[in-house]
Amino acid sequence: MGEVYRAEDSKLGREVAIKVLPEAVATDPERLARFQREAQVLASLNHPNISAIYQVEQDGDTHFLVMELAEGEDLSARLERGPIPVDEALPIALRIVEALEAAHEKGVIHRDLKPANVKVTAEGAVKVLDFGLAKALAPEGHSPDGASLSDIDPSLSPTLTAQMTGLGVILGTASYMSPEQARGNPVDKRADIWAFGCVLAEMLTGRRGFAGETVSDTLAAVLTSEIDLGELPATVPTSVRALIRRCQVKDHDNRLRDIGEARLALVAAIADEKPGEEPGDEPGFADPGGDHQRSKRSLGLLIAGAAVGLLLGAVVTWLGRPSTPAKVIKLQVPTDHLRAERVRGPLISPNGKMVLIPEGGALSLRHLDKLSARRIPDSYGARFPTWSTDSQSVGFIVGSEIRKVSVQGGSPTPVARLTADVAGSGGMAWTASDHFLVAGGDKTGLLEVSAQGGELKEILALGEGQDVDFHEISLLPNGRDAVFVVHRTSSDSEVRIVDSLAVFVDGERKDVFRFEGEAIESVVYSPPGYLVFHRSSTTPGIWALPFSLSKLEATGEPFLVAAASWLPSTSADGTLLFVHGLELPHNELVQVDRQGNLIKTIDQFQGIGEAPHLSPDGTKLAIGGVEDSNFDIRIHDLERGSSSRFTFETTFENGARWSPQGDELLFASADVRQVKIKPVGSSGEARVVGEGLIPDWMPDGSGFVFMEFSDETDSWDISYKFFEADKATRFLSTEANEQGPRLSPNGKHLLYISDESESLEVFVRPFPSGEGKWQVSTAGGADPHWSRDGDEIFYLEGDDLMAVEVLDGDSFALGSPQLLMASTSAVSMFAAGESGTFAPGIDGQSFFLVRPVVSGSPNQLMLIQNWHAEFGEHR
Question: Would the pLDDT of 852 be above 50?
C-alpha cells in the first residue's frame, strides 16, 4: 500500500506514521482524486482499535498520508512463533471485531484484513491498520498490465490489485480473500467477515488456512477447499468453532450476516457462558426464525430503556388523551431530520423490531432497541420502501429501478426497471413468495415482478370507466394478498374525487369501502382486524375501519385513531407507527441567502410546490402546485406580491421554464408526457411541441432539450429538438437513466443526472456533440442547476445544497464540490431528476425553496403497542 516512515508532528508534538502513496497513484490525477475522496471517508472512523488517518498532504510531487503511529508487533510476526493461546487470542479477536463493526456502521469495508494489518501493543491494545485503503488505492478503469498470478510469491501475502493481475478487479490478499473477491466479483462487508474467520483460525492454529505454491494455487484453495477445524485446540469453545464455520461459508448469502454477531459470540466465549439467545439457537448467533414471537421482547428492550429515550424526546403520555389501559404503550421514536413523505415512509418492520426512516433525502434503518440509526447506502431519492415478510431485507425504488438490500448491510442490488408507463409508481409491497407487487400509477394497474429479477407483468387491470390508478399497496397477513387505494373520478360534476379501499385476494379485486369527495392514503392492515389509513378531510388524521379477513368486508364504520397524524404502518403483532404533527402539504415558498438564512416568505399554501424557476428579469417565479385537485402551474409576481394560475389543463403540468425573452413558458404534461409552450398572459390552450419530460430551453430560443423513455435501452434518455425540425435528435442514450437535462447559459454544455454508478450523480457533457463528460458530484447528487452566468453549478447532495465552481477558460474544468447550505429542507414529492426542488436567484446570491412550514411542534414519529385496546367499542 506504500512506503511507511516514522515521523514527528512538530506542530502538535506527537509521533505519527507517514505513508507515501505508490507512484502509480500519485501520478494518476483521476485515481488520486478518488483516493482523496476515500480518505475523507476513512478519516471519519474514530475508534480505539482503528489506526486513524489524520491528513492527506502533498510535498511537490510526493503525496502522502499522515496517520496514527501504531506501536507494537503485528500478528503476522507474532504467528511466526506459533499459535496464540486461546485465552490470549479471543480478546485480540474481539478487538478486531469491534474495529470492523465500527467501520461497517460507517459504511467502510476493510477489504484486506490479514495478520500483517493488525498490531498488538505491549500493553495488549489492538490496532487494525489500512482500513479501506484497498479500495482507496485501487485503480479504476485502468487496463491490467498482464502480470501473471504465478509470478507473485504467496508467502509475502501481497495485496493484489488490477495492476498485478490479469483479472482487473481483484483486491485483497490471496490467503484471506473471500471467494467472491477471488472471482473478481463485487464485495461487501461479508468479505471482511470471511477474512476475520481466516485470521481467527490462524491465530488459534498457527497455520494459514489457505495456502499454495503460487497465488493461483492459493486462490484455487479458497474457492474449493475448507479450513480444517480439526486442527483447532481442544480448549477452543464450541461457540468459537461455530463462529469460524459461519464466517467461512463460501456462499456469501449464507455467511454470517453481521460482524456484530461475532462480537456477541466472542464476549460470551470469553466470559465462559452462553449468549442469551432462545433455546435451540446455535451458540453465539440469533435464530433467524421466531422474530414474531420475540417482537414484544424487542419492544420491551425499548421500554426498559425509556429513561434514555426520554432524554432523546421520548414520551409516554399520549397527545392530550385521557389515561389508557396499562397494556397500551406509547413512545416517540428519536429521529434526525425526519423527512416524512407519502412516497417515502417511515415504515415499521413486520417483526416490529426495526423502523425505516426517511432522513436527509435517504433511508435510515433504526433498530428499536438501539439509540442510533444506520443510513442505507445508495438510497438517496428512494421511494415506496417495503419490507420483506421475514424483516430481513428492504426494497425501494430509485429513479425507475427497483432495488433490494439486506438489513445486515451491503450495497443494494438492482431487481428490475420500471417501464415508462409505471416509472412514477403508486406503491410497492414484497410478498412471501418473493415477488414485488407494484401499483403502477399513470393509469396502470397492479403489476408483479420476481425479487430475483425479470420483467413486470400486469396481474390486475384498472376497472373500466372511472378508475384512474392504484396507490398505497400493502400486504394482508398471509403475505400473499394485498390491500390498496383506488383513485377514481366521478361522473357527477359536483364530486371530483371518489377513493376506495380495495383488496386483492386470489387474483381478484374487491372494493371494501368508498369515500366520496376526499382523498384516502397509506392503507395498511392491522391485527386483530382493521384497515388503518390516512384521511385528509372529515377531521384529518389516521382512521381505522373494522374489517373481517374471512369475509373480506367492513364490519363497522370508520373511526378516528389519531388526529393531525398521517403515514401509518403496522407490524404483525399490531404495533402502530405513524407521524404526528403538521402534515406535509402545508408548505411555504421562501427566498434564502447562500447560508440558508431567510430573506422573505413569498407564499404559504396547502399543497405541493415544485420546480420553481425565475424569469430572466428576476421579477416572476413559475412553480407547479395543486389547484382544484389538478397539478397546474402558477406564476408569482415577486414585485407585487401576487400570484395567478397559469395553466388550467386536466393533465399534470410541471417543470415550467421561462423562455430567454421571458414571454413564454415551456413545460410538460407529465401524465401524457407531452412538452408544451404557452405565452405568458394568454388565456388560450398550450401548444404541443414534442413528447417527453423536464424540458429546458436552448439559450437562443431555437429549441429545447428534454428527457424521454427509450424502449431500446429500457431507460430514460436525453434528446433535443429544434422548433423548425420535424423530429427530435437523441443526445445521450445508454442503459443507465439520464434525467433532468439543463443547458448552460452559453449553450455549450449540458448538465444532467445519471444512475450509471451505484448512486445518482451529476454530470456535464459538451453540447451538442456529447463527446466526453465531467462528473460534478462526488457523493450522490440530484436536481442540478446552472447559475445565471454559468460560473457555478448547484445541486443537492441528500438534503444539503452544494456548489461547484466552473472554470470555463480555454478548456472546461470544474472545482471541487463545496457545501453551501446544510439541511435545506426543500420539499419535492417526486423522484430526484423528475422535478426540481429549488431555484437559484438571478445573481446566484439567493435561492428559492419550497419547504415545510416551520412550527413550534415539529413532526414526531410515534409508536403504539396494542393501539386497538383503546377502541374496543368499535370492534
Answer: yes
Query: How many helices (H) and strands (E) would you count in the chain?
Result: 12, 58
Cell numbers linked to 446: 397492479
The answer to whether 680 touches 635, Cβ cutoff 8 Å, is yes
Q: Which amino acid is at 89?
A: A
Q: Output the CA–CA distances (angstroms, integers) from residue 614 to 410, 484, 638, 659, 848, in the order listed.
A: 41, 39, 10, 10, 9
- Find the angle CA(869)-CA(473)-CA(870) to the nearest 5 degrees: 10
Is the pLDDT score of 175 beyond 90? no
469 is catalytic: no
Of these ranges, 3-7, 37-41, 246-250, 537-541, the one predicted with the greatest mean pLDDT is 246-250
Q: What's CA 759's distance to the chain center, in Å?
A: 9
DSSP lists the bridge partners of residue 366 as 355, 373
Alpha helices in 326-430 (DSSP H): none
Amino acid residing at 676 = K
Q: 140-151: per-residue pLDDT in tens?
A: 433 222 333 333
Instruction: Report the pLDDT value the prediction gives residue 422, as an integer from 0 to 100.
Output: 63
Other Cβ atoms less than 10 A from the Cβ of 121: the count is: 12
Q: Picking from 457-461, 538-542, 869-873, which range would have the lowest pLDDT averaged per residue? A: 869-873
From residue 227, give the alpha-carbon distance in Å to each of 203, 211, 256, 853: 13, 10, 16, 60
Radius of gyration for the chain, computed over Cα atoms and rounded to the nearest angstrom: 29
The angle that helices 238-247 and 189-205 make with each other, rounded to 10 degrees, is 140
Q: Which one, of 199, 192, 254, 255, lies nearest residue 227 by Cα?
A: 199
C-alpha grid cell, residue 388: 420483506
The whole-angstrom separation of Cα 823 and Cα 830 is 18
Interatomic CA distance for residues 12 and 749, integer angstroms: 47
Percent of the chain with pLDDT over 90: 29
Cα within 13 Å of Cα(354), Cβ side: 23
pLDDT (0 to 100) of residue 858: 56
Distances (CA, A) of 755 to 30, 467, 698, 702, 709: 20, 33, 25, 30, 15
As a whole number of angstroms, the distance between CA 572 and CA 753 comes to 39
pLDDT in tens, 114-133: 998 899 877 678 999 887 66
Beta bridge partners of 600: 591
Instruction: Say yes or no to pLDDT of 18 above 50.
Output: yes
Q: How does residue 363 score in pLDDT terms, banded at 50, 70 and 90?
A: confident
Here the cell at position 7 is 515521523
Tens of pLDDT, residue by residue over 554-563, are 999 999 998 8
Q: Does pLDDT of 312 surpass 90?
A: no
Would you tell me the crossing angle of helices 238-247 and 259-270 to the nearest 10 degrees?
160
If we measure between CA atoms, which residue out of 123, 114, 105, 103 comes closest to residue 53?
A: 103
For 538, phi and psi rounded to 5 degrees?
A: 55, 60
Q: Is 8 helix (H, G, I), strand (E, B) or coil?
A: strand
Task: Decide if 498 contacts 463 (C-beta within 8 A).
Answer: no
| Angstrom distances, CA of residue 326 to CA of 296, 316, 323, 715, 869 | 15, 11, 9, 54, 10
Average pLDDT taken over every residue of the chain? 79
Catalytic residue among 59, 112, 467, 783: 112
Query: One-letter amino acid identity for 24?
Result: A
Instruction: Give me the sheet containing 126-128, strands edge to edge.
Output: 73-74, 118-120, 126-128
Any idea what the Cα angle at residue 611 is, between residues 607 and 616, rounded to 5°?
125
Residues found in the chain: 875
